[in-house]
């Protein structure tokens, strides 16, 4: 299966991070902060949090003030499936499943919907650190 294009993902104007966390040691928080630090308009997605790093958190993509172009996913694979279903419904263009979030059925559904899917075990933190 062809892996997605990271350049297209990183060229997006707006982002969401599914699995963003208020715990600074967790990858969901690190990815959220890395995107913010890189000057990207980024929204946290976490139904269990009201606020993350001073930004309003959203329970679902449908509740966000806009549909982000790109979505970074840091969730367990079974949650990833639900997040991908929401992303398809919302019309998100790019999805990056971070290591551990990958789910073959979610990847297949997203690709069939025409989404640029990155699910090869690469980590956005590495690219943002060298970018």
UniProtKB/TrEMBL annotation:
Please list which residues make up the signal peptide. none
- Domain (CoA-binding) spans 9-101
Coiled-coil zones: none
User: Pfam families attached here?
Assistant: CoA_binding_2
**Source organism:** Novipirellula herctigrandis
Classification via InterPro entries: CoA-bd, NAD(P)-bd_dom_sf
From the Swiss-Prot or TrEMBL record, give the protein name: CoA-binding domain-containing protein
Gene3D superfamilies of this UniProt entry?
A: NAD(P)-binding Rossmann-like Domain (3.40.50.720)
Domain of life where this protein originates: Bacteria
């Amino acid at each position: 299966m062809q892996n997605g294009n990271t350049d297209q993902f990183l060229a997006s104007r707006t982002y969401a991070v599914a699995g963003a966390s208020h715990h600074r040691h967790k990858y969901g928080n690190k990815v959220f902060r890395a995107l913010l630090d890189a000057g990207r308009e980024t929204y946290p997605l976490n139904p269990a949090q009201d606020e993350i790093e001073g930004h309003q958190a959203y329970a679902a993509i449908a509740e966000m003030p806009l549909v982000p172009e790109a979505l970074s996913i840091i969730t367990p694979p079974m949650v990833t499936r639900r997040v991908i279903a929401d992303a398809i419904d919302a019309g998100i263009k790019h999805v990056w499943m971070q290591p551990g979030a990958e789910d073959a059925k979610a990847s297949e559904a997203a690709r069939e919907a025409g989404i640029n899917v990155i699910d090869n075990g690469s980590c956005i933190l590495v690219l943002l650190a060298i970018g």
